[in-house]
Specification:
8 strands, 2 domains, single chain, six-stranded parallel beta sheet, F-box domain-containing protein, 311 residues
Amino acid sequence: MNYDITVLQRLVDSGLQPDDAQILELHEIAAKDASLITSLEEEETRALEKLTEIQKRVEIEKALLSPVLRLPGEIWMAIFLESVLLFEKFVTPHPNSPPLVFSQLNRFIRYLALGTPQLWSSIKIRRCDWKLKCHPRVDFVQLWLSRAAKQPLSIYFSSTRDKPRKLFECDVKGVVDIMDFILTLVPRWKSVHFCASDLSSAVIRLGAKKPLGATMLEDFELDIQEKDNASYANHAFLGKLRSLWKPTHGPIRFYFNRITGDNMFRLLRDASSASRLHHRPFVEANEPLTHPPAPLRIADGTDSVPAQGYT
């Protein structure tokens, strides 16, 4: 008997029970159909794998024929530099941002990115970026800046504590190590911004050492965030600024966010004739600044320094 789907459906609709011979035939047909289903599923799997392989090959063929990927390496480097310039002056190392993101695309792009020193000549280092380590990673900073070859360097280094002091007691050595390494690069400084909680922190090492002249230096900023300035007058490095830091294209700028003492302004004024002081008055948390602060009086009483700064 020919048991096609129509006959089988008619047999089911009739409500009659198949006899023993029909049952044997139906068992054989069911076994053959199950085997056929398995065979078709295997063929479908092979077909899908083949389809995926062909699709990938077509994508690669299109990429190889794309005029974009046939651009000279010099143009790629220019594109990399242009994309970095769209971001901040100091580059924050992040895997999803240039230039680190370029090293993750493919071997060709990685080779070009690592071979473009200008991409690695800027870095922004924050003390609180390394939360999984006991101290900032000086080896990472060394590797990053080593890729810059002999390019002038733009460095932002913040050693301030954004959280309670007890959470950062173990990272002091890392901060000092990074500061020492940055000081070895003084001849290549172009734009440098140090941010510290007080002058007794790692920034004091600026005066403790006598680095080579910063002949490329165009922009130097020292940002001090401290309310208590009782110990500032004893820091000898302020008097060395004239001989150590000689910017070629602009003044040295000092930012003191939370300083209100007059003696600090006098020390800085006497430290270097090329320095420019910017004062940001200390404001308690959540306290709005509703009016400009009053001018600050120099200790000798002969003149005053406006709160927004003087040259």
